[in-house]
């Protein structure tokens, strides 16, 4: 069994940074007197917030454990994230924890929390230092009718006052009201309003349920060029799909391989076809990935596979065109073989060039 930690840090974490916002005190806050002063200041300015109880509970625990560990082996600190929470808040809390550990080299942590939101940071803390215990502070409430009504009033006020809740309590209903007004002005049946409203609600639930917004934010933070090119590609594909759908509606024919092939080869503007739009969207994604690698690694360290894939995609246009023509009985198998061979040879030469260059650099 491992020895019990001799130096313990009592940690109070405020993931949504209410303490920083209300008291205007920068975190990390280290030391009993400073934490107590912050707790008193916070309780005066925001007495209904449970974070005040967590701060006082942390101070109380410090006073209780001080007799066992001594002042030199015990410390108390407050960390705060950001109002938006999510990944940005976790990174800020991690950085503040590292600052505290440089000042007080603790061997274990006691986490004091006022609810599950702050405890989401537990894995981040455990990546730096063992967590001995988690103390959750539950605020006792009177169950009288007046107190319950007052508590509900405060929660409703919070929904409309705080930014992170306003987008749900005001933003989504506002969109639905605008849709209703727009559809009424256009004399569109109310049934469509209901369907679109349900679709919007389902879309929001899927995004929040699978944390898609946080994943998109993470991708944009770490791969901005790839993210931008991916968005542009999705727009191009959407435009191409819309054009194809409109043409199918005009032709009033059941979908078939021949019809889809003809649509892919149909010209939209000059020599540009629907096939070109789809290929261009793929090229954009590859260029975006290359751009991110150039920014993070440098021009000479981009993976040669991206250059080969880019070359292959650019040269594959005549291969796809001739292949589609062969499928519908209008192409020449010889030209298809010819363009396929040219594409593979040039792509192989590009790949061989970069592989040879890497070997020469390593030698």
Structure description:
The chain is α/β, with parallel strands linked by helices. The protein is built from 16 helices and seven strands. The chain has a five-stranded mixed sheet, with helices on both faces. A hairpin with a 2-residue loop joins strand 6 and strand 7. It is flat. The two termini are 50 Å apart.
Features:
363 residues, alpha/beta, Rossmann fold, 3 domains, 5-stranded mixed sheet, two-stranded antiparallel sheet, 16 helices, 69% helix, flat
Low-pLDDT regions: none
Question: What's the β-strand tally?
Answer: 7
User: Percent of residues in beta strands?
Assistant: 5-15%
Order the strands across the largest sheet as they lie in space. Answer: 2-3-1-4-5
Q: What is the total domain count?
A: 3
* Main structural class: alpha/beta
Q: Biggest sheet: strands, sense, closure?
A: 5 strands, mixed
Mean pLDDT: 81
Count of helix runs: 16
Give the overall silhouette. Answer: flat
Q: Roughly how many Å apart are the termini?
A: 50 Å
H/E series, N to C? EHEHHEHEHHEHHHHHHEEHHHH
Gyration radius (Cα, Å) is: 30 Å
Q: How helix-rich are the residues, as a percent range?
A: 55-70%
């Amino acid at each position: 069994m491992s020895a019990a930690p001799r130096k313990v840090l009592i940690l109070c974490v405020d993931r949504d940074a209410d303490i920083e916002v209300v008291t205007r005190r920068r975190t990390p806050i280290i030391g009993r007197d400073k934490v107590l002063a912050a707790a008193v200041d916070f309780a005066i300015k925001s007495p209904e917030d449970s974070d005040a109880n967590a701060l006082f509970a942390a101070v109380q625990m410090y006073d209780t454990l001080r007799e066992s560990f001594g002042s030199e082996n015990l410390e108390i600190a407050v960390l705060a994230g950001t109002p938006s929470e999510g990944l940005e808040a976790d990174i800020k809390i991690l950085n503040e924890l590292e600052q505290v550990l440089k000042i007080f080299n603790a061997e274990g942590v006691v986490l004091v929390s006022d609810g599950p939101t702050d405890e989401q940071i537990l894995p981040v803390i455990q990546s730096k230092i063992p967590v001995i215990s988690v103390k959750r502070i539950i605020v006792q409430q009177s169950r009288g009718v007046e107190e319950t009504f007052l508590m509900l009033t405060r929660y409703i006020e919070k929904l409309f006052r705080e930014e992170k809740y306003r987008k749900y309590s005001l933003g989504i209903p506002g969109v639905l009201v605008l849709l209703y007004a727009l559809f009424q002005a256009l004399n569109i049946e109310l049934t469509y309003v209901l369907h679109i409203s349900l679709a919007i609600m389902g879309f929001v639930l899927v995004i929040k349920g699978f944390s898609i917004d946080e994943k998109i934010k993470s991708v944009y933070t770490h791969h901005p060029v790839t993210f931008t090119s991916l968005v542009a590609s999705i727009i191009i594909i959407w435009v191409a799909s819309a054009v194809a759908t409109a043409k199918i509606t005009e032709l009033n024919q059941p979908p078939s391989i021949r019809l889809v092939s003809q649509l892919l080869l149909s010209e939209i503007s000059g020599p540009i076809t629907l096939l070109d739009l789809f290929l261009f969207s793929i090229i954009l994604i590859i260029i975006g990935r290359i751009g991110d690698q150039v920014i993070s690694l440098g021009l000479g360290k981009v993976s040669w596979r991206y250059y080969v894939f880019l070359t292959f995609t650019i040269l594959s246009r005549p291969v796809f065109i001739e292949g589609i023509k062969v499928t519908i009985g209008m192409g020449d198998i010889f030209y298809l073989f010819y363009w396929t061979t040219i594409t593979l040879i040039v792509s192989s030469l590009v790949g061989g060039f970069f592989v040879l260059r890497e070997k020469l650099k390593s030698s």
